Amino acid sequence: xxxxxxxxxxxxxxxxxxxxxxxxxxxxxxxxxxxxxxxxxxxxxxxxxxxxxxxxxxxxxxxxxxxxxxxxxxxxxxxxxxxxxxxxxxxxxxxxxxxxxxxxxxxxxxxxxxxxxxxxxxxxxxxxxxxxxxxxxxxxxxxxxxxxxxxxxxxxxxxxxxxxxxxxxxxxxxxxxxxxxxxxxxxxxxx
Length: 191
Fold this sequence. Notes:
Helices cover 76% and strands 0% of the residues. By secondary structure, the protein is an all-alpha fold.
């Protein structure tokens, strides 16, 4: 089985997730910029969530571009990944509507942790589904961003019990780290 259908399906799900997120932003009923002030936390949660979904989308694209085939285990791992990704609009809206609290920040971090974990499982399933010479197999030989991400999210979840704003800073730092393109994939796909 090649990667085209899986890539198309995931693109569709990601497009729906982003659409749901933007539809969660209410339109103010009164004119003027002051009407936007109560939406500040929701908009910030939306912006961070949008960046995270976008990062997972291009990371997924790179993984599939570096893969030559998929199997049943990859399909299941992809569904597991999409399940956690699909919960981002829910936690985004909860943070935005309930405010920055211990529980909302914990929930956001837990969903982010499970997205990262499931993305790692998908990566490993793709490596196993492809032959040793495939670009995905070569990409598996380096990089620590995934491990750093898991550790950072676990740390942030612990910190959220005491200081939710510090946890949010860690979530933002993880997103910023992933905005730097992964040269391993680009070199393997172009080469």
